[in-house]
Amino acid sequence: AQSVTQLGSHVSVSEGALVLLRCNYSSSVPPYLFWYVQYPNQGLQLLLKYTTGATLVKGINGFEAEFKKSETSFHLTKPSAHMSDAAEYFCAVGPGTGRRALTFGSGTRLQVQP
Amino acid sequence: GAGVSQSPSNKVTEKGKDVELRCDPISGHTALYWYRQRLGQGLEFLIYFQGNSAPDKSGLPSDRFSAERTGESVSTLTIQRTQQEDSAVYLCASSLETGPAGNTIYFGEGSWLTVV
Question: Interface of chain A against chain B, CB under 8 Å?
Fold first, then answer.
């Protein structure tokens, strides 16, 4: 079975500050890991994904995440927050044994203060 | 189409009524997924299609929920005898083929269902 834990349902940062959204996963098979972003009243959009190879993954809008197997983590970071980054962020893991769909975390709502 | 299209975008229904939610995946995508997102919560997997068959329907919460896919394209999620706890956003997604490894999963904007 696979699971994802996102620490902190709400994170607030100041504009220009570092963004750090935490994600820990559990998987019995080598995981593929994803971050999705959901802007208000919109569908989910892929930010970045890790499948194999380089453990530091760069995504859109200046976000990146590092796969750390020893820590079972895949935290999302951005050096400098922008007001437009305010959204809900979901970490996901897949595929599961016998299941092809992704398993999502409960999400972290990022608030950016001016 | 250019993206995953879902309809209706919003639906208010009375408790006990049946509803149908439609998903048009991206053309050529053989894998199709349904998720449910309750207010303030994460995504809950419902069912996955590969072509017209559903190898994994383990997430359907009860026998009031069913889904089908035809022509390896459009999918319909049906909820019978709706209950208030069915109120949620129902998200459809598609990808080129099974497995998320090399194939990005694209989501629609969802169908917001409110049961009153």
Answer: 6, 9, 32, 34, 36, 41-46, 49, 51, 90, 92, 94-95, 98-107
On chain B, the residues whose CB falls within 8 A of the CB of A104 are 35, 42-43, 45
Q: From CA B13, how far away is CA B31, in angstroms rounded?
A: 29
Q: Which residues, in sequence order, are bridge partners of residue B17?
A: none
Which of A43, A51, A107 is closest, CB to CB, to B109?
Answer: A43
Contact between A87 and A38 (Cβ < 8 Å): yes
Residue B43, classified by CB atoms within 10 Å of its CB into exposed (0-12), middle (13-18) or buried (19+), is: buried
From first to last of its 116 residues, what are the pLDDT tens digits of chain B?
579 999 999 999 999 999 999 999 999 998 899 999 998 788 899 999 989 999 888 899 999 999 999 988 999 999 999 999 999 999 999 988 755 555 678 899 999 999 99
Q: Hey, what amino acid is at A47?
A: L
CB contact under 8 Å between B109 and A106, yes or no, is no
- The whole-angstrom separation of Cα B76 and Cα B55 is 16
